[in-house]
Amino acid sequence: MRIILAIGFLTVIQAVTAQNPYEPGYIRAFADYLWTQGDYSRAAGEYQRLYFIDSAHSSNYAQFQTARCWWRLSQPAKALVYLNSIPIDPANSFTDSVQILAALCKIKTHSNTNELRLSHANCRDEMIVRTLSSLNSDEWRRADSLVRFSDCPEGNDTRILSLKKSIAAFQLHQNKSTILAGALSAIVPGSGKLYAGRVTDGLYSMALISGCSYLAYEGFHKKGKKSLQGWLFSSAGLFFHVGNIYGSVQAVRIHNRNIYEASHKDIERYIALWFNF
pTM of the prediction? Predict the structure, then answer.
């Protein structure tokens, strides 16, 4: 009798604890577990298994979660493929999350986000995503107008304040012209580097070339065309002058690259802080 009871008890326990690995609820729970553990690659595979087994009920959730996995794996192009397969339903608040993540993926892949349309409840998110997209494309004037002339109330949203600071910083140190830098240095040695913000280098170039020019003039003035001093310092002055023009152009290129890298670091930081996908 005891043996029969034991067998019956074990049978009940097995029936309760055993789970069908192809049952949608089990797959979803396992995929969610992998997600919480940070195993995004395996989680993406499980969400796709859920999509193919239970597409009638779980397709949107499975595709969205798969996209989130690829987003966390820093592969926005792959995430965008799954997001684009989710139908847009303006009446469903879930759609806003899909569109925001899709827009962020497009920012990362340098694509256009003009078609973004969110519900009025999330108009700030829409404005912020559009502004980030404009900043990412170096369209600073458009970004400024989006922030300044938005229909959404600013309230106490610190994100908008941060965007305004980034835009103001760029306008203060905006991109400079390499042609203008070269022309300035050709006319007044060192002025191109001053234009690029290299004050010390600019003053040094100005003093060096001016000194060479003066010594060359002094030599030619005393001994005419036969002056060794005149030819030596005029050659040195010409060499430094050409180098100064080239250096001014390079200084502006470095300045512009630093501005670009700083702005894109801000964009990456804002996306990580403001959007928890």
Answer: 0.70
Question: What is the DSSP-derived secondary structure letter of residue 158?
Answer: H
72 band by pLDDT with thresholds 50, 70 and 90: very high
Q: Are 136 and 267 in contact (CB under 8 A)?
A: yes
Distances (CA, A) of 99 to 66, 69, 179: 15, 16, 41
- Name, in order, each residue with C-beta under 8 angstroms of 123's C-beta and a sequence gap of 6 or more: 150, 151, 152
Instruction: Measure the CA–CA gap between 189 and 211, rounded to whole angstroms.
Output: 11
The rounded distance, in Å, linking the Cα atoms of 52 and 70 is: 18
End-to-end distance of the chain based on CA atoms, in angstroms? 57
Q: CA 228 from chain center: how many Å?
A: 57
CA distances from 217 to 13, 71, 224, 242 (A): 104, 66, 9, 19
Contact between 201 and 249 (Cβ < 8 Å): no
- Structure confidence by residue, pLDDT tens digits, 85-107: 888 877 666 788 888 899 899 88
